[in-house]
Specification:
Distance between the termini: 76 Å
Protein name: Inner membrane protein YejM N-terminal domain-containing protein
Transmembrane segments: 21-41, 61-83, 90-110, 137-161, 173-195
Domain Inner membrane protein YejM N-terminal: 7-249
Pfam family, one: DUF3413
Largest sheet: 6 strands, mixed
Number of domains: 2
Number of strands: 11
Keywords: Membrane, Transmembrane, Transmembrane helix
Structural class: alpha/beta
Oligomer: single chain
């Protein structure tokens, strides 16, 4: 009797195991369909090997995730609880949850550029909340409809495979499909090893395009966003951030500043800290030591005038492109910056904004003038440093977090001249009166600079990175915050075509 019960138990478990394989095959097909969106979320590879790697990785890795989910959930349940009707129902619910989670991850990756993770939770919640607020009824219907369609698919497949199990066992499809997926799995890893050894960035930049795949490195992140000069790396083993083909492209049409408010803004840049201290000592100015500026003076001055990182400097200076906000009202005067002298309009004698560098005998035009003053950074080994910024605007001392040179011009145009819409449309600098978060991005000396609260991440030209404290300057032993860096690089490339 015990032997008979044991055989009956084994028979049910064996049948459920066989059914589970076919149920998993059906879910592999569904997972492949959902994960197609990952293939179109980023710019496609351009080489034959890159395209081959993308396809075999998509097939093998997605299938592996679906199979692993079966092994970790349905398979052990089938062994300890071999009751077909209950197992098939539970499997349908579990698979619905998994497929819905994959759909959510695909949506997040398509919109934000990274996968679901605890570190990205605030950004993900913000994305979903914005979507829900923009169209609550449609979003609810779509989300609920997707879950119901997936559940209906799972129940249908579960019942069909169980009822036709004997006929399905006679098919050789499963054997051939399994062998093909195993070959794809081995091939994808072989291609990646070869590409990593031979600097084939068209392959390695795809490291993290599927969930639970290779962890993204700083180098693959830069390559993925076309910020590596790969040819130079092949020739000299020295990766350079690629600025040669940067196309500076502003959104169109530009917002017109209809409610322009006449104001005077003087921005003084002193050569030394001593000159700055002497200037500030005789005036009623407020100070903050949260001013983050590049140590390269040309990069800093460009950012101060245009409200943009020096990522766009070469293109703008070579083409002598005027600041977008100035093209509507020639309202800026630049003194002491030879490379940007083309901005000045000799016929305009009373500019709203004056940016003056170099002397120690400067004075505001009158008592109603908004004043900003700081000194050039001392040359040192760091790409950026924090220093003191003086301002006649007391609210600047209450700003939450770091302040960049680009934020000063954005505040001047957006707040004092009342042209906030065009400042937001044409600059990466932030109006300090409206700053809501303590994060930002910059670029200097070929280094991507991203900060979040007190942590500054520097991604060097060779793809290496380090984290430093903004307040103290010491190194922070911490890994890459991939979601934040993806967001920062996308922001850096806002005005590329």
């Amino acid at each position: 009797m015990n032997l008979s019960q044991h055989n009956q138990f084994s028979s049910k478990a064996s049948q459920l195991l066989s059914w589970g394989h076919w149920f998993t095959f059906a879910n592999i097909g569904l997972a492949l369909l959902i994960s197609l969106s990952y293939l179109f979320a980023d710019s496609p590879p351009t080489s034959f090997m890159g395209i081959t790697y993308m396809l075999v990785t998509w097939l093998s890795h997605t299938s592996f995730i679906a199979f692993l989910a079966f092994v970790l959930t349905v398979f052990p349940l089938s062994l300890v609880f071999p009751y077909p009707r209950h197992i098939r129902g539970m499997a349908a619910v579990i698979a619905t949850f998994g497929a819905s989670l994959l759909t959510l991850d695909a949506y997040v990756y398509f919109n934000l550029g990274y996968h679901l993770s605890s570190s990205a939770l605030p950004e993900i919640i913000s994305l979903l909340w914005h979507r829900l607020n923009s169209s609550p009824a449609l979003t609810t219907i779509l989300a609920g409809g997707i879950v119901l369609v997936i559940l209906g698919f799972q129940l249908t497949v579960s019942n069909f495979t169980w009822q036709n199990l004997a006929r399905l066992k006679q098919l050789k499809f499963a054997r051939y499909a399994s062998s093909f997926l195993v070959i794809c799995f081995a091939l994808s890893h072989s291609i990646h090893i070869w590409a990593d050894a031979n600097l084939k960035f068209d392959v390695t930049k795809q490291d993290n395009f599927l969930p639970l795949s290779y962890p993204t490195t700083a180098k693959s992140l830069l390559a993925k966003n076309d910020l590596l000069d790969i040819e130079s790396y092949k020739q000299a083993h020295n990766v350079q951030i690629n600025q040669q083909n940067i196309s500076y492209q502003l959104p169109t049409p530009l917002t017109k500043c209809e409610d322009y408010t006449p104001a005077k803004i003087d921005i003084f840049v002193f050569e030394t800290a001593q000159q700055l201290a002497q200037f500030a000592s005789n005036r009623n100015l407020y100070s903050t030591k949260q001013f983050l500026q590049p140590t390269d003076h040309n990069d800093m001055l460009f950012s101060l005038v245009y409200g943009l990182p020096a990522f766009y400097k070469s293109t703008i200076i070579n083409e002598q492109t005027l600041p977008a906000w100035q093209s509507q009202r020639r309202s800026v005067e630049v003194t002491g910056i030879a490379a940007l002298n083309f901005i000045n309009d000799q016929t305009h004698t009373n500019s709203a904004i004056r940016i003056i560098k170099g002397t120690d005998d400067l004075a505001p035009r009158d008592k109603n003038t908004h004043v900003y003053a700081f000194s050039l950074a001392d040359n040192n080994k760091e790409v950026v440093i924090t220093s003191t910024l003086y301002s006649s605007d007391k609210r600047i001392t209450r700003v939450n977090g770091l302040i960049q040179p680009s934020d000063i011009i954005a505040t001047a145009v957006g707040q004092y001249l009342n042209c906030n819409a065009i400042a937001e449309q044409t600059m990466l600098g932030v109006n300090l009166h409206q700053k809501k978060d303590n994060m930002g991005v910059n670029y200097s000396q070929g280094v991507v600079i991203a900060y979040k609260k007190d942590r500054i991440t520097l991604i060097d030209p060779d793809g290496d990175f380090k984290n430093i404290s903004a307040a103290e300057g010491f190194s922070i032993e911490q890994g890459l915050d991939i979601p934040f860096l993806v967001h920062s690089i996308k922001k850096l490339k806002t005005f590329t075509q």
